[in-house]
Amino acid sequence: xxxxxxxxxxxxxxxxxxxxxxxxxxxxxxxxxxxxxxxxxxxxxxxxxxxxxxxxxxxxxxxxxxxxxxxxxxxxxxxxxxxxxxxxxxxxxxxxxxxxxxxxxxxxxxxxxxxxxxxxxxxxxxxxxxxxxxxxxxxxxxxxxxxxxxxxxxxxxxxxxxxxxxxxxxxxxxxxxxxxxxxxxxxxxxxxxxxxxxxxxxxxxxxxxxxxxxxxxxxxxxxxxxxxxxxxxxxxxxxxxxxxxxxxxxxxxxxxxxxxxxxxxxxxxxxxxxxxxxxxxxxxxxxxxxxxxxxxxxxxxxxxxxxxxxxxxxxxxxxxxxxxxxxx
Length: 328
Ligand code: UFG
Hints:
Layout: E1 2-6, H1 11-22, E2 26-31, E3 47-49, H2 55-64, E4 69-72, H3 79-84, H4 86-106, E5 111-117, H5 140-159, E6 162-168, E7 170-172, H6 190-198, E8 205-208, E9 220-225, H7 226-235, E10 246-251, E11 256-258, H8 259-270, E12 276-279, H9 294-300, H10 309-322
Parallel strand pairs: 1-2, 1-4, 2-3, 4-5, 5-6, 6-10, 7-9, 8-12
Antiparallel strand pairs: 9-11
Helix pairs in contact: 1-7, 2-4, 4-5, 6-8, 6-10, 8-10
């Protein structure tokens, strides 16, 4: 299949693009390179630099590349920034997504895979979180993702759009060969920040709160390798043949690790101490998030290859130690 990967030069998009090639489909990337990195996409993959809401450009790509299915990763994802700058988030994550979907439908492309988030649940009523848990986002970021999910449902009913939504818990890790990985600026995620502290790129890892109602006082999260996540997306391709199909999947390993456990795992993998400081809680961090991934395993036959936190962190460690300055 010919797959348009919107945001294919970003962290998750670039790993997914590579896995699409491995799975013998043909990826085509559209990315505005505001956060993405041209070097994250192999030179042989057709690459278009531009905006997902540029309807003339998207129309041109859908036609000339004979696109069968669109995957959309091009979102802003910082919870804190979304609270401070909601217009930026609604414009990019909702308004531009609407333009992309409108172009697709006008061109008769009706298969779509959407990158969503555990943030749609807010502080979930039940852990592990199943897909039917009440959606109550506590940030504009989470709300914009839920708004898109609702839009997709309306388009499925009205226009026969078939879609799969993946609600990520904590995507992490890097390509096994260490050639692509996480390169955000600013970096806000735990694993890269712990590794940056070990490498001396930051003075220390600041732990946001050690007074949570959890066994060691730090937050619990469900970490899943970005290539495993990507393989789940690809496994959904052939479930979208029937017009109007609506699929929703939580995706994580279903095993929570605390911030302290992640620090220990980074120390085991790197053989070095993580310099740590303890600060106040970060606004909007739920004490615990963990996926119930029964549905994605059953419906898509998804089996993660990276089942231990150490194996995930090993891949991230390889990437960051080979490329301490990321892609630059
Ligand atoms: N943390 C620190 N120090 C850091 C970075 C993170 O202590 O420097 C802590 C956080 O407070 C949290 C845990 O490590 O307890 C994980 O934080 P991340 O920023 O790595 O990931 P989040 O769980 O906050 O975020 C992820 C996705 C978001 C998504 C969210 C859903 O990255 O896009 O889950 O709640 F919105």
